Amino acid sequence: MLKNCIVIGGGIIGLSTAYYLLKEGHQVTVIDKSDISSGASFVNAGYITPSHFIPLAAPGMISKGLKWMFNSTSPFYVKPRLDKDFLQWTWAFNKSATAAKVEKAIPVIKDINLLGRDLYESIKSSSEFNFHYDHKGLLMFYKTEKAGEEEWEVGLRGIQEGLTVSHLTKQEVKQYEPNVDVNIAGAVYYESDAHMTPGEFMPAMLNYLKQNGVTFYTNETVQDIGLENKRISTVKTDKRELQADEVVLAAGSWSPLLTKKLGLKIPVQAGKGYRINVERPTGITMPAILVEAKVAVTPMQGFTRFAGTMELGGINHEINPKRVQAIANAAASYYNGIEIDAKEMAAADCGLRPCTPDGLPYIGKSKVCNNLTIATGHAMMGWSLGPATGKLVSELISEKKTTLNLDAFHPDRTF
Prior knowledge:
The chain is an alpha/beta fold. It has a single domain (4-409), classed as FAD/NAD(P)-binding domain (3-Layer(bba) Sandwich). Helices cover 34% and strands 26% of the residues. It is built from twelve helices and 23 strands. The strands form five sheets. Strands 4, 6, 7, 9, 16, 17, 18, 19 and 21 form a nine-stranded mixed sheet that branches. A hairpin with a 2-residue loop joins strand 12 and strand 13 (231-237). The protein starts with a strand and ends in an 18-residue tail after the last helix. The model has no long low-confidence stretch (mean pLDDT 95).
């Protein structure tokens, strides 16, 4: 049965959902509070990451967070605040950060990332619209032997999961990255990963959807959701009132503000990430993560992007110059001769990643509401998991068997 669907949120998750709902023949309307030209879907590192199978809520992260809490330049910064939702989220995060829960999450995260990669490749091969997609793998650059040992442990776990992973010496790295002088001890290389240029893909996808009949209401804020007999009856924006058979909530870090109106609590905290673009030749041709600094480096179309940091500080878009400087310092430290200048740092931007307490996104329907599908909480994997989430949501709404088991992503799960 074909349905009239409203998607709330026009980021990579929302647009991917609209794409697959359109493919199923449904009528689709997307609502976004912006003009869909900025935000986390535009400033991320552009990684498709089967290598990132360890959830954020891993053992040791709480102690690291406490250690880093008062250091505003640290890779993972938690801004201390007496906020009920934040404190409850922190408690749930702590409960989730166990070895047993991480072990359970590993194959789940790996499988949905692989699905995301396959779907990007399928969209690319369809030639419906053009975009940069490069399957070169990912280098994990480390400076210290301790970091190298820890990274290779993860690599060995990846091999157990069927990924192709190798441990490279500094000399062997030269074969992959011949045009730059890296100041490292070695690297762990994941063949599985790919990368893109988000700021190119998003407008291309948006244009494709508009040309193929998807309705967009941009610069509109959803103010209220009417609920009758466990079904959403109306979606009210600041400009209109809409009705639909199905509603998809893909509003990222803003999603809990809307679920609260339905009496549904989905713990999500906004994790701010920063990016600096260097629009001059750097010689960098391979995506890399600077392990100790937790900075991602991506060769994109016409520029190199340096991105990083996780700042849990609520919903705000304030740029902290210290965190931007930390990314620039990391670039200079790992790549000899690469200096990010003041003008490039001044043009830094940020985006908010929606983080769940256990590091797994919410994908599915809550018992609270029969015609609402939630698709949020993807944290640092939002770009990687966009098409996979969109595909799974379209299967749910089309009442088909889902490609992956969604139990681990259930929005009603407890922590």
